[in-house]
Amino acid sequence: MRKKITIHGANISSIASFYDEINRVFMAGEDWKIGHSLDAFNDLLYGGFGIIRAAEPVILVWINMEKNRDDLGYEATIAWYREKLESPSRFNIKWVNERLAALEDGTGRTFFEMVTDIISEHSNIVLKEG
């Protein structure tokens, strides 16, 4: 039997609010939250902390996923990369510029696509649009 977890896309309008929703849903009952990092989100899906335990089978229902495809799409991703460029001591600027250029020329991945790619890498998680 799969555990059902629901993300409410109405709570998501930006990358920052995506992380707020992820923390609200996945980290309920914890006394700490994951940071704004795709690596942290990926780690969360492996289980062991938060509401997923030991790679248990999960159905992840994402309500309003199509709305969030736009919310976390091209414009939000461009802004996310450009924000990283403002902190060259914290980020690999060459990597950021490469990803930004790929997105601008139509070959890169949006933040939404990166999130769904990460989810799809976890064989214990089935993503469903709600």
Cα radius of gyration in angstroms = 15 Å
Which structural class is indicated by helix and strand composition? alpha/beta
| Total domain count | 2
Q: What is the global morphology?
A: globular
What is the correct CATH architecture of the largest domain? 2-Layer Sandwich
Task: Kindly provide the name of the CATH class of the largest domain.
Answer: Alpha Beta
E-strand count: 3
User: Helix content range of the residues, please?
Assistant: 40-55%
Low-confidence stretches: none
Report the end-to-end length measured between terminal Cα atoms. Answer: 19 Å
What is the average of the pLDDT values? 96
- Summarize the biggest pleated sheet: 3 strands, parallel
Tell me the CATH superfamily of the largest domain: Barstar-like
Features:
single chain, 130 residues, alpha/beta, Barnase, Chain D, 2 domains, three-stranded parallel sheet, 6 helices, globular
What is the gist of this entry?
By secondary structure, this protein is of the alpha/beta class. Helix content is 48%, strand content 13%.
